[in-house]
């Protein structure tokens, strides 16, 4: 487990260089006292491990930029992929504060060694397109949702895909969560596409996507706490947390109404990764406990495939 004595740790993502697991994670000082303030103080930390259990912290990966940068308030959740030339690309969320509201967009930084990162001069590379996605206007949601990029190569070799936390520009205010989508040929120039799901599935937002093929079946993971479910969904669902569903293709479309909960609100931001034996496991951060927010990353939890998605194997 990764737990820092002086900081809360929450969202995270992985890279594997062939020898070690690299964990990139959001953290903020516990000196803030109120964990709800952590989002505006987030930096991206970095740790390495041989077994997904014992972690050694190394130098931080990224911090927020200076005004008026797209990430001048905070750097949030992302993902890492390696390009054809061996360069690592970290896609991450940049938050910029405008009149007390955090406006989100996607940026990228590159590295040859997963340690030293350089932000791309052309950032941001993707922002919410009002043709399909909600822009903040003060009358609907509490922020402009365009974050948590999950980037993967097209299975047919036709460039790259990015799944993004976004909200549709229509439908009930509490039920607009969709799978945002963008495409690229070169990992630097991105074109925003229509969403890969429809609003109205019961979620105010769908956070931190990951799509993988598990035991031959495409599985989509996303996250939504109970407070961000639609009113109708709250009436039928006991809790939020990590959710999963099966699909026919890694590029969608995704029927979010089929999603089933994998955890409750005590665990959040589930991430799938293959352990040293090649088996799929999930890590998540410890969210709510008896005394409030915890802020530490779990040990690996084995998962198995069900007809509806994933489930945790009993301890």
From TrEMBL:
It holds the Pfam family Glyco_hydro_32N. GO terms for molecular function: hydrolase activity, hydrolyzing O-glycosyl compounds. Residues 18-218 form the Glycosyl hydrolase family 32 N-terminal domain. One of its GO terms (biological process) is carbohydrate metabolic process. The keyword Hydrolase applies. It comes from the Bacteria. Keywords: Glycosidase, Hydrolase. InterPro entries: Fructan_Metab_Enzymes (IPR050551), Glyco_hydro_32 (IPR001362), Glyco_hydro_32_N (IPR013148), Glyco_hydro_beta-prop_sf (IPR023296). The keyword Hydrolase applies. Belongs to the glycosyl hydrolase 32 family. PANTHER family: BETA-FRUCTOFURANOSIDASE, INSOLUBLE ISOENZYME CWINV1-RELATED. This is Beta-fructofuranosidase. It comes from Kribbella voronezhensis.
